[in-house]
Design goal:
Layout: E1 2-6, E2 9-13, H1 20-33, H2 35-38, E3 42-48, H3 54-67, E4 71-76, H4 80-99, E5 103-106, E6 114-117, E7 121-124, E8 132-135, E9 139-145, E10 148-151, E11 161-166, E12 170-173, E13 176-177, H5 180-188, E14 194-199, E15 202-207, E16 216-218
């Protein structure tokens, strides 16, 4: 069994020839020994070498939580097509978080819920109709945007909104508001994750990654 660090997080490669209980005990020892190295890192997690059940994945998460201060953002599948998409999302999100202090929110933002941050926001879930997200920096939604999103709320037109899918009730970046009908039409023509950016006096929707399909599990 090996633990490998990569640009977006860590990959744990499990031997297919040993009982999971034996591997879990060895994994706990490895993380205890390397806890100082990882410190308060925020990372994605992937598995290789063998297919884990949901219960085994949960046990791995418990081991990491008990032996380190690592915050696992999500579990990424090893499907190569899907990996392209989520690497793009992770790169956008982590780059923005490094520029300034940001907020992570895990779970779906339901109707009438409001989430606000002076910096950037990463949401691991959907933003449902009637929910509202406002950020001084960029907004990354690892899910679908149905509600309202306002990035660059203090006038930053360089901010962006990224999501796996966008059908927003309202979308603003800086002082520019998108026309809902145009954004929804553009969204339908784009397969995979999308990013909304300002160009001139208009918000445009572009693909965040080309050709992507697969699955991800949010923590």
């Amino acid at each position: 069994m090996t633990i490998r660090s990569c640009r977006y997080g860590i990959d744990i490669r499990f031997s297919p020839d040993h009982e999971f209980s034996v591997l879990a005990e060895a994994l706990a020892g490895k993380f205890r020994a390397s806890a100082r190295f990882f410190k308060d890192a925020q990372m994605t997690l992937s598995f290789s070498g063998r297919l884990l059940s949901r219960e085994e994945e949960d046990e791995v998460l418990d081991i990491i939580s008990a032996n380190t201060d690592i915050k696992i953002l999500c579990i990424i599948s090893r499907d190569e097509k899907m990996e392209t998409m989520y690497r793009s999302i992770a790169e956008q999100a982590l780059a923005d978080m490094q520029k300034r202090e940001g907020m992570f929110y895990r779970g779906t933002l339901a109707k009438r819920q409001i989430l606000e941050s002076d910096a950037g926001i990463v949401i691991l879930g959907d933003v449902e109709p009637g929910a509202r997200v406002t950020a001084g920096g960029s907004i990354v939604i690892v899910g679908t945007l149905y509600g309202s999103a306002h990035a660059g709320a203090f006038g930053d037109r360089n901010a962006f909104v990224a999501a796996l899918s966008m059908q927003p009730g309202q979308l603003r970046i800086g002082d520019i508001e998108a026309k809902r009908q145009i954004i929804c039409q553009e969204s339908l023509s784009i397969k995979g994750p999308q990013i909304a950016v300002v160009d001139g006096r208009r918000i445009y929707l572009d693909p965040l990654a080309d050709d992507a399909a697969g699955c991800i599990r949010f923590i």
